[in-house]
UniProtKB/TrEMBL annotation:
Pfam family, one: UbiA
NCBIfam families on file: PRK12324.1-4 (NF008978)
Entry annotated with the keyword Plastid: no
Keyword line: Cell membrane, Glycosyltransferase, Membrane, Transferase, Transmembrane, Transmembrane helix
Protein name: Decaprenyl-phosphate phosphoribosyltransferase
Superkingdom classification of source: Bacteria
GO molecular function: glycosyltransferase activity; transferase activity, transferring alkyl or aryl (other than methyl) groups
Location within or outside the cell: Membrane
The keyword Membrane belongs to this UniProt entry's keyword annotation: yes
Species annotation: Segatella salivae
GO terms under cellular component: membrane
Mode of membrane association: Multi-pass membrane protein
Enzyme class: transferase
Chief location category: membrane
Length: 294
C-alpha cells in the first residue's frame, strides 16, 4: 500500500484549476476583503475535494480503456495499485469533505453548495457518457470553469460581469481543444484512438478550432479592458495595456501545442513551463498595479 498511489488518484496538482473560484474576488477589486477571501478559500477547498471525488469515479469507470493507454495505464486503478473498492471509498470520503467545507460558509452554503453539487453531477455524467461526444466534451469542460466562477461569486457576494464569464468559457475552451489535439496526434502515430470521440476530430478541425477560440478570447479581453463600465468600475483606462500579456500568453500556448506538442496536460504546462509562468505573473502584477495601486 503506497500512499503515493492514493495521492495520484486524487490528483492534487489539478487543484490549481480551482483558483478560478478566486477570479470574482480579483476582478471585483475585493482581493483584500478578509471575509470574502476566507469564503473564497473555503469554496476553493470544497471544489477541490469534489473534483478529487470525480477523478476517483473517472479512474474507476475508465479502468478498461486506461489499461490499453500507453500513459494512463500507469494510473493507480488501471495498474492495480488501488482497488476499485478503495477508489469508491475515496470518492465518497472526498464528497463528504467537500460538503463539510460548504457547511463552513457563513451565509451562502445552500447556493454555493448547489452549484458544486450540480458540477459534481454534471461531471459524473461527463465521465460516464457525455465525454464520448466530440465538441460537447470540450464545452462541458469549459462550462465547469464557469461554474467555478459562479460558486466563487455566490460565496463572496460578488456579481459576475458578462465579460469574466465569456472570457473564462473561451480561454478554457481554447485549452480544451489544444488538449484534444494531443489525443489526435497520438491517434495518428499509433492508429488507436485514446478516447472514443477522438475519431470525430482531426488536425485540420482542431487547428481551426484553436485559432478561432484564441482569436475570440483576445478580442473579448480587449473589449473588456476598454468597456465603459469596466473603466468606470476600476477608475482607470489603462487596463488595455494588459492585453499584451494575454496575446503573448495565447501565442506561447499555441507554440507549445503545435510546435512542441505539449498540450496534453494544461495543468502541467502551467506548473512547469517557465515562459508561461512569467507571462501569467507579469499579467497578474500589472493588473494588480493598475487596479489596486494607481
Amino acid at each position: 500500500m503506497n500512499p503515493k498511489d492514493y495521492m495520484k488518484i486524487l490528483r492534487p496538482k489539478q487543484w490549481v484549476k480551482n483558483f478560478f473560484v478566486m477570479l470574482p474576488l480579483f476582478f471585483g477589486g475585493e482581493l483584500f476583503n478578509t471575509q470574502a477571501l476566507l469564503s473564497a478559500v473555503i469554496t476553493m477547498l470544497a471544489y477541490s475535494f469534489a473534483a478529487s471525488s470525480i477523478y476517483c469515479f473517472n479512474d474507476i469507470h475508465d479502468v478498461s480503456d486506461d489499461r490499453r493507454h500507453p500513459v494512463k495505464c500507469h494510473r493507480p486503478v488501471a495498474s492495480g495499485a488501488v482497488s476499485i473498492a478503495m477508489a469508491y471509498g475515496m470518492m465518497i470520503v472526498c464528497f463528504i469533505l467537500s460538503a463539510v467545507c460548504v457547511a463552513l460558509l457563513p451565509d451562502t452554503a445552500l447556493q454555493t453548495g448547489g452549484v458544486i453539487l450540480f458540477y459534481w453531477l454534471l461531471n459524473l455524467a461527463y465521465c460516464a457518457w457525455l465525454k464520448q461526444h466530440a465538441i460537447i466534451d470540450v464545452c462541458i469542460v469549459a462550462f465547469g470553469f464557469v461554474l467555478r466562477l459562479l460558486a466563487g461569486g455566490l460565496a463572496t457576494h460578488i456579481e459576475l460581469s458578462k465579460w469574466i464569464v465569456l472570457m473564462t468559457f473561451l480561454i478554457t475552451l481554447f485549452m480544451s481543444f489544444a488538449k484534444r489535439r494531443d489525443d489526435v496526434i497520438r491517434m495518428e502515430k499509433t492508429g488507436e484512438a485514446p478516447r472514443k470521440n477522438t475519431i470525430r476530430y482531426n488536425l485540420t478541425f482542431i487547428n481551426q478550432a484553436i485559432t478561432i477560440t484564441a482569436s475570440v478570447t483576445l478580442v473579448c479581453y480587449i473589449m473588456y479592458t476598454v468597456s465603459p463600465e469596466v473603466i468606470s468600475h476600476f477608475k482607470t483606462d489603462y487596463l488595455y495595456l494588459t492585453s499584451i500579456f494575454v496575446l503573448v500568453g495565447l501565442l506561447r500556448y499555441i507554440q507549445l501545442t503545435v510546435v512542441d506538442q505539449r498540450s496534453g496536460d494544461p495543468t502541467k504546462v502551467l506548473l512547469k513551463d517557465r515562459f508561461t509562468q512569467l507571462i501569467v505573473l507579469a499579467w497578474l502584477l500589472t493588473f494588480l498595479l493598475i487596479i489596486y495601486v494607481l
